[in-house]
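INFO  loader      accepted 1 record
INFO  loader      residues=356
INFO  predictor   begin
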Amino acid sequence: MRSLLLTILLFSLMGGSVLAQDPVDVSIVINGKALDGDPPPRLVGESIYIPMRKVFTALGAQVRSENSVIIAQRGRLMMSFRPNVSVANVDGKEIELEEAPLLLAGTVYVPLRFVAQALGDSVAYDGNTKTVTVVPGAAAAAPEISVPQERIALLKTGLTQLVVGNQGAILKVRDASGDKEVYYRGLDDRDTAPYSDKDHDGIVGACGVQNDLKGWVKDTIEAFTVLPKRQAIAFLGMVYSIPSSSVKDPGPAVDDAIEEFLISVVKENKSVVLRRQAVLSMAVGDQEDLEVLEAVLRLYETSENLWETFPVQQYFQYHADDLRKLPNFPAIRARVAAVNSLYTANILQYLDGQKP
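INFO  predictor   done
INFO  writer      dumping tokens
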């Protein structure tokens, strides 16, 4: 999926200017087999759009339309979306699309990156041959998961018990049936998001992972691709927030593994929902880490999505006292001040020891 080219330059592709939504002379090859050019790929702005039904069907997905909603299913994976709407639902989770699917000349078209976001397949473009190559995810190289299936099943059960807020991290824990609350933290509010000792005990105990917390963290990271992802990130953030002075702390090696994982999500994951959740998990962390700080700052400097960067102000709210002690604090403050965002004024007040 990393090989996916997100943008194809207009002039290098076509050798001249074309109108938006024009057909383009690009071949589509799926699993070694070329598709016919009817309907053809199209150029929209500077991005290549491909005919959704033809490509998804060739990838083994069943496609149907219900009340203007396009639904595609391949195996257990199901996704739905509407043309001209930049949000899709994949396996019950909403993902924000950087480019919306379009209805062009009676055909639903999707940008190249959409295939990777929706189905997890590998997509690449060769500018020399003007060829889009799609390799189904099952055939694409992927790290082997060594976690036993029974452990994965237990993880899925435990993680689906977690109710995750947009500001307050894990809000409550339900029982395995989902019918009863077994632990309740409070409202979805950023001022109450940091976990207390009572929260650590209540959440860990309710999920039944207290006897092997280190092992469950390791398995959550390794089996992340097949788990409820947002809950998995929230769970890791909760563990990451356990103070190193606590007897419940699984140790610095676990903290390092969680930090590395959360940073990779912020840097590499295509889902704005998961990147946002990773920042919130970093925000509730117990101690300051320079690599985490750099990841948060870099996201704040490069993302224009206010929903995605909302937890950044929580990060600085919770860590301002420690950040002021760093020798490079003036440089940190200057980087924040240079960001044109609605949150910058609040963050600067936190950094200056004031309450917005």
